[in-house]
Amino acid sequence: MKKIQMVDLHGQYLRLKDEIDAAIRGVLESSHFIQGPDVKRFSGHLAAYVNGSSVVTCGNGTDALQIAAMALELKPGAEVIIPAFTYVATAEVIGLLGLTPVLVDVDERTFNIDVSQIEQATNSRTRAVVPVHLFGQCANMASLIKIAHDLKITVIEDAAQSLGATCNLADHSRRQAGTIGKIGVTSFFPTKPLGCFGDGGAIFTDDAALSEKMQMIANHGQRVKYSHELIGVNSRLDTLQAAILDVKLKHMDDFTQTRQDVAARFDDGLAGIKELILPYREENSSHIFHQYTLQAVDRDGLKEHLAKLGIPSMVYYPTPLHFQRAYQQYGKGPGSFPVAERLSKNVISLPIHTEMETDQLDYICDAVRKFYNA
């Protein structure tokens, strides 16, 4: 059996080696390293993949969030609702811009923002809400969109872990993650569902004027070179990364299906273990399984047991936002967000990626069952 990786990036590269090497070679030969034709080509293909939304590429997913907030011209002191159980970048950008993150708890089954708590978290200063589609499936967007519309607040979707997932809405349409709110953002960090060989990100919107504005902000606030109409940033997707992403995008559906097959095998192999809660599937969203995340009794003991057997695992996330020193002011101490606090103590993610083999999956399941004597 091959060594088990949390994510086998090298194995995926070897599978696509000829295509990726040719794409990289093309960029090297053209030497258009910044804003080369591959960036525009990839942007067009990605727009088609998400069914026509405008795509603005940028340097990384955190930049994507910042550019989105800047384009909305949110004023210092404005409040933005976010989940308490997420990666720090969600709150980081809000604080960086002088905005106020307002935390709400999450759904204990899906790990996504608990939409039933949004309304009570709003006031006259609330301007936006950022649902983070965690681990590969969408938040309850049908309800969230209605709530946001009624409250007149803007929805910025964080689809960094869910690009490729789809969601059913109240009007019976089915939309891609990141294309449901006013703005959606994603990351191309190497381990993401669509990952490059470095950093990268993108922003989605159906608003043409807003798209142009975000494109300008990402490029020093200029529409025409040396004519700076807005205060902007320098956030570009490298041509090399765009070329690599364009290759991988062709295989995106196959990658998703493979991870879903791995998740189904885990479901079968771990069924009936009373100490575990297996990943829940949101009724109105597909699940692309960026992570296969369990809730486990004696999570730390399980993690140590797996490590001794050569099985990697990860805890996303061991500390909820309101326990982070930089963001403690946005909670009210222990008990502020009980679901987020409980999840931080019992979640564990097993290896899941596009190169996993049957003997590896069986070995992992056997190891987990042995730990619980199941």
Q: How does this model look, in words?
A:
- Strand 2 (79-83), helix 5 and strand 3 (100-104) form a beta-alpha-beta unit.
- The strands form four sheets. The chain has a seven-stranded mixed β-sheet with strand order 1-9-8-5-4-2-3, with helices on both faces. It has a three-stranded antiparallel β-sheet with strand order 12-13-14.
- Helix 2 packs antiparallel against helix 8 and helix 4 crosses helix 7.
- The protein starts with 8 loop residues before the first helix and ends with a helix.
- The protein has two domains: 9-249, Aspartate Aminotransferase, domain 2 (3-Layer(aba) Sandwich), CATH 3.40.640.10; 252-371, Alpha-Beta Complex (Aspartate Aminotransferase, domain 1), CATH 3.90.1150.10.
- It is of the alpha/beta class.
- The longest helix is centred in the last third of the chain and has 19 residues, at 252-270.
- The protein has twelve helices and 14 strands.
List keywords for this structure.
374 residues, alpha/beta, Aspartate Aminotransferase, domain 2, Aspartate Aminotransferase, domain 1, 2 domains, 7-stranded mixed beta sheet, 3-stranded antiparallel beta sheet, 37% helix
